[in-house]
Amino acid sequence: MCDVCGCHDHSHNHGHETRTVDVNQSLLKANEDAAVSNRKHFDELGILAINLISSPGSGKTTLLEKTIEALKDEISIGVLEGDIETDLDAERIRAKGVPAVQLTTGGACHLDSSQIHRGFHSLKHQLNGKKLDVLFIENVGNLVCPSFFDLGEHIRVVLISVPEGHDKPVKYPKAIRTSQLLIISKSDLVQHFDFNLDKIKKDALSLNPSLNIIVTSAKTGEGMEEWIKFLTNLKKNRKN
Amino acid sequence: MHEVSIALGMVDELFRIAKDNHAKKITLVKLKIGKMSGIVTDSLKFAFDAVKLEHHLLSGAEILIEEVPLVYECNDCHASFNAEDIYFPACSECGSRNLKLVSGEEQNIESVEVET
Question: Would residue A13 count as lying in a domain?
């Protein structure tokens, strides 16, 4: 609508020129540009960056705790924790002896790449010059919006826990299509739920044929060895 | 509701475009949004119409959204077809699921109309 006279006709003018500018670029360009610069920065420093996304309560922080327990003597790990409020998760990570920065979004349901840029610089202060091998970014718990925002990670890992149900891949296809690994967590609960493991795997692979899938339980330790191997292989392959 | 974040990013981008083109006002923003982009076009329009009022540059800007259909090309028989079934499409000619996405993921600003 023309805000000078309130009409819907764009053909007339009020003494100024109107013209069309071709843009043809992504709506998310600002985020994408910052993501590219983050990834370049991580590459220069030899850091493998991993973005963990899932619904709230799927076990992202628990997976990180177990991963740190398994690997902290071999590789140097840092964590950026995304939440709407509180630094409870960063405290859990620090309790494991690993540097962590809490990013509170104050309401936003996802992290963006400029937050990662700022968070990573805060993390570097905590490191005191120590080299980092792997940076984990734990996104805000949400299976929708985080899948739209490239943070500059090298690998995106999506978690779906057994109590959430096997229908999640088809309901949240973008999270599956943009990830390289699906972790089906809380496998110790399978016997208590009507959860079809074959169906969730088949659906996820239909959406993303190159997706890796690991079934885990932080309780029984199932799949943890496979996950650790996946990580160490990633790290090794990047060095070569 | 990532549409609000996307609308805010769009506002920043429109300011940049206005500056580059010495524009006093932006009157029209044309977007191309794919059916599988995951962007709810009504929500994006709602969010933009709310945030634009905070800026003189954008307060009169209309948003025009072209929805792009989901088109696949079959890697086996090379037929191309529109897909109704978003998640598990099969080739309409040979039934293959070995498909390449041709369009439907767009989330672009195509053009803007500026007053100079």
Answer: no
Looking at the complex, report in whole angstroms how far the Cα of residue A217 sits from the nearest Cα belonging to chain B.
28
Span between the terminal Cα atoms of chain B, in Å: 34
Q: What is the ipTM of this complex?
A: 0.84
Asked if the Cβ–Cβ distance from A144 to B109 is below 8 Å, we say: no
Task: Inspect the interface and report whether the beta carbons of A145 and B2 lie closer than 8 Å.
Answer: yes
Domain span including residue B76: 3-115
The pLDDT averaged over each successive group of 10 residues in chain A (240 residues) is 55 72 91 96 96 97 97 94 92 95 89 95 92 96 92 98 96 92 98 96 91 97 97 83
Domain count of the fold of chain B:
1
The tally of domains found in chain A comes to 1
- Give domain status of residue A236, yes or no: no
For B23-44, write each residue's pLDDT tens digit: 999 999 999 999 888 889 999 9
Select from B1, B5, B6, B99 the residue whose CB has the most chain A CBs within 10 Å, as the one to mutate to test that interface: B5
We report the CATH number of the domain holding residue A221 as 3.40.50.300
pLDDT tens digits along B46-82: 999 999 999 999 999 999 999 999 999 999 999 999 9
| Domain enclosing residue A61, as ranges | 29-228
Which residue carries 């963006």 as its tokens?
A112
Torsion on CA atoms A196, A201, A204, A209, rounded to nearest 10 = -160
CB pair distance less than 8 Å for A147 and B114: no
CATH of the domain at B39: 3.30.2320.80
Q: Is A23 within 8 Å of B17 when comparing Cβ atoms?
A: yes
Local structure of residue B100 (DSSP, 8 states): E
Looking at the complex, report in whole angstroms how far the Cα of residue A25 sits from the nearest Cα belonging to chain B: 5
Q: What is the pLDDT of residue A7?
A: 56
Q: Give the distance, in angstroms, between the CA of residue A155 and the centroid of all CA atoms in the same chain.
A: 8
From A151, A169, A158, A195, select the one nearest A52 (Cα to Cα).
A158
Cβ B5 vs Cβ A108: under 8 Å: yes
Q: Is residue A21 in a domain?
A: no
Which residues in chain B are closer than 8 Å to A16, comparing Cβ atoms?
A: 24, 115-116
User: Which of A1, A27, A171, A202 would best serve as a mutation to test chain B binding (most B beta carbons within 10 A)?
Assistant: A27
